[in-house]
Amino acid sequence: MWASSQEDFVQKLEAYLSKYRWKLLSMENTAAVDPSKDYGEEVNQMIDETLQDHNAIRLGTYYSYKPN
Fold it and tell me: What does pTM read for this prediction?
């Protein structure tokens, strides 16, 4: 696993982003990925790639909406 806790995750992510002079502005409703779930083709590919290389970092924007 790339990070052992949420704090570890944030520290590693901020260190990675600082290499590009980027800043983490916010995170909401975060959770560890369940690799057995289907998140759609693009996200599933990102998950598969990071499972093969535990040092890999994949960034993306994920949206979820509650039905009315």
Answer: 0.64
